Amino acid sequence: MITEGPIDSLFLDNAIALAGADANIKIQPQQCTMIFDNEPRNKEIVKRMINAVNKKYNVAVWPKTLKYKDINDIIISGKTSTEVQTLISNNTHCGLTALQHINNWKRI
Asked: Which domain holds residue 94?
């Protein structure tokens, strides 16, 4: 799993952080899931998510009902790391399915 922020990566098993979402990584797309912050109004985040899908990465698309900005906020709210990982797993998509979920999620 590749998160946007370093603190977010600490709560997940086998995760690293991009530290700003702008890294150019050399990992096979099928080997990881990109996890961006829950900022559906942020044009840059939406653009990066679509870019990741176009490069054939798996992308976690947060449910619209989630009120927290990132994994750290979800943990602070009382959820466990296991619950967060399940949430990510259940909302990870690739290809056209991911693009459809991103289009439904974004608010721009």
From this structure: 2-105
Per the structure, the count of domains in the chain is: 1
For 57-86, write each residue's pLDDT tens digit: 999 999 999 999 999 999 999 999 999 999
First-to-final CA distance of the chain:
26
Q: Which residue has the tokens 């109004």?
A: 41
Phi, psi (rounded to 5 degrees) for 3: -100, 165
Q: How many angstroms separate the CA atoms of 57 and 64, rounded?
A: 21
> Is the overall model pTM greater than 0.85, yes or no?
yes
Neighbouring CB atoms inside 10 A of 77's CB total 9
SS (H, E, C) 12-24: CCCCEECCCCCCC
